[in-house]
Design a protein that fits this description.
Blueprint: H1 5-31, H2 46-79, H3 82-96, H4 104-137, H5 145-176, H6 181-204, E1 211-213, H7 218-229, E2 234-240, E3 251-254, E4 260-265, H8 266-271, H9 275-290, H10 293-315, H11 319-324, H12 332-342, H13 344-388, H14 397-403, H15 409-417
Parallel strand pairs: 2-4
Antiparallel strand pairs: 1-2, 3-4
Length: about 425
Amino acid sequence: MAFPYMESVVCFMILVYIFESYLDLRQHSALKLPTLPKPLVGLISQEKFEKSRAYSLDKSIFHFVHEFVTVLMDSAILFFGILPWFWKKSGEYLVFAGLNADNEILHTLAFLAGVMFWSQITDLPFSLYSTFVIEARHGFNKQTIGMFFKDMLKGIALAVVIGPPIVAAIIIIVQKGGPYLATYLWAFMFVLSIVMMTLYPILIAPLFNKFTPLPDGELRSKIESLASSLKFPLKKLFVVDGSTRSSHSNAYMYGFFKNKRIVLYDTLIQQCKNDEEVVAVIAHELGHWKLNHTMYSFIAVQIITFLQFGGYTLVRNSKDLFLSFGFDTQPVLIGLIIFQHTVIPLQHLVSLGLNIISRSFEFQADAFAKKLGYAASLRAGLVKLQEENLSAMNTDPWYSAYHYSHPPLVERLAAIDLPDKKED
């Protein structure tokens, strides 16, 4: 008797949902606490705390509903054989359109087109509610309905342009890869990730936001001086009009080797009390660069990707695995989808490990900024961003350990306040 792979996957999906719902309930209880954590008393006003609490509770309730509908749909799609049925129907559509359904690339693209249409339709009510009810209710949303659908259509257009060549390349590599398939797949994805990281900020991001050089002035001078003191090869310094879509704020950097760029959200500049707070946030980001966190994270992702492809090569010819999910053929894309479902337990463990490492990196970047003399400004900047973004003030320790890639504010402030260790 063949092993019930599909039933096992569905059972584990439900078990993970139950476990994560338990963590969500713990977090929901923490969010309902009527008082600020003691370390934040006097730093954050009661008014901001109440607003943060209301926003977090609204998002928490929305999350419960969204996750329930998601696990219900995903389980039903697997359990009732919707995937093999849809694969068959996409082949029939190709025949109806006068195309060759035996061409696996065409068949896969037809299947993916249907999947994309389905996901857009099913996710649309949640996206609209999140943006135009929750985000709008709490003063964050700046989008119009027209802008929302324009962005959605741009995203679909990009997927239509970029997706088919990538899918076709993966199918060809799997069909012709032989014993070195995992290496070829990894090499292709490695090159693709480099290309996308290069092209995204230059060609794709400007389709959604406007990037303008940070005007000359004190803030620009301070950032350039800081970058120069750390030998950070800053080539361009941009402000992005994040405020056209949301009041949330951020800052990031990108680029390879000697061509680095820093991007500040206009909301970050508006929300911070003074230039020093903005510079302190940049000092934290430069800490990630100086301490090689970005490189370590990239290497970790490459190792995980290679191991995943290695695992895929071990099961891609398993007839029993495909039959368990209702397929009497073994298409490349379907094999990848099934494999991703079967390794869900490992993916959750890997995600937990990456979050632990990420939180460690955040503490190190804070310490780096502190060492540069920005402790007070960074502290003030973090508090200001927590306030303005209405981030959760009270967090459950189990929930944050499992989900958060960044430590809660209370933990970051405590670490910044620790006295420096005396060097022998």
